[in-house]
Write a structure and sequence with these properties.
This protein folds into 2 domains: about 130 residues, no CATH class; about 130 residues, no CATH class. It contains 11 helices and no strands. Helix 1 packs antiparallel against helix 2, helix 3 runs parallel beside helix 6 and helix 5 crosses helix 7. The longest helix has 29 residues. With about 260 residues, it is mainly alpha-helical. The N and C termini lie far apart (about 55 Å).
């Protein structure tokens, strides 16, 4: 297991350095966001081909993570088709000095590489340890992953279609899954990683796999997901009512006016 983690870490380091150089050439930091999913897919496939034995659990988990990462990368690539970042990137570098890109490498790229290794750890466990056949826990894990994946896909699709309508410019999406949670896509993201961790639970030291979904949930709820958007929406005139009516993270039926009173 130590050898697999070491190889994975070296692979992540190489990819993060490459992405950093690419971001300097393109003047775009969004490359690291788009590459997040594919890097996890790459590490998952690497672990499967190096240590996997072609067992059903190993094949299933690797396919699920590959599906998630490929879908996410395509969605972000489609969403981020814009040239605005290049100007902002140049201005930020000029404002913060010549050493700012180097600091950004350690604070953004290298840090994300470490976080990525923690998140993909359950996949490494599944592909390293041998346990033939599928258990009831695997069916449970697949169910959890499927619900999370569907939440993320449907929520992203609803948001993308909403923003493409010119009549919705400046509005908040408050229908569909977005009426059950203010961040249904983030809820789905967290849930599917709990499903991936559940695949590793029956394996030796399976409780260590919980570090992955715990980290994902913490990042989304407390660091880079929910807080950023909640702060962005604060000044929107429709947000106070939307916040009172709609659950923050976990999907719930919207509260009626009577319930609020």
């Amino acid at each position: 297991m130590v050898q697999l983690i070491t190889l994975s870490a070296l692979g992540v380091l190489f990819l993060m350095v490459s992405l950093f150089v690419l971001s300097l050439l393109l003047h775009r930091d969004s490359v690291v966001d788009i590459a997040w999913g594919p890097i996890i897919v790459f590490i998952s496939l690497l672990s499967f081909f190096l240590h996997g034995r072609g067992e059903p659990r190993q094949i299933l988990v690797t396919l699920l993570v590959s599906l998630w990462g490929t879908r996410l990368a395509l969605y972000l690539l489609l969403r981020n088709q814009s040239r605005e970042e290049e100007t902002g990137y140049r201005q930020e570098c000029q404002r913060r000095g010549p050493l700012f890109p180097l600091r950004k490498f350690f604070q953004v790229y290298l840090l994300q590489g470490v976080l990525l290794l923690v998140i993909v750890f359950p996949v490494l466990m599944v592909n390293h340890f041998s346990r033939p056949g599928l258990l009831f826990t695997d069916l449970f894990a697949l169910s959890v992953w499927t619900v999370g994946f569907l939440f993320e896909v449907v929520a992203d699709r609803q948001l993308y279609r909403f923003k493409r309508e010119p009549r919705n410019y400046g509005k908040l999406l408050q229908s569909g899954l977005w009426s059950l949670s203010r961040h249904p896509n983030y809820f789905g993201e967290a849930l599917l990683w709990w499903g991936i961790a559940a695949f590793a639970w029956p394996l030796p030291g399976g409780w260590n796999a919980l570090a992955s979904p715990l980290l994902v949930t913490f990042l989304l709820l407390c660091v880079s997901g929910v807080p950023v958007l909640e702060d962005k929406w604060q000044s929107h005139p429709d947000f106070p009512e939307y916040r009172r009516r709609t659950s923050l993270f976990f999907p719930k039926p919207p509260r009626s006016r009577r319930n609020r009173e």
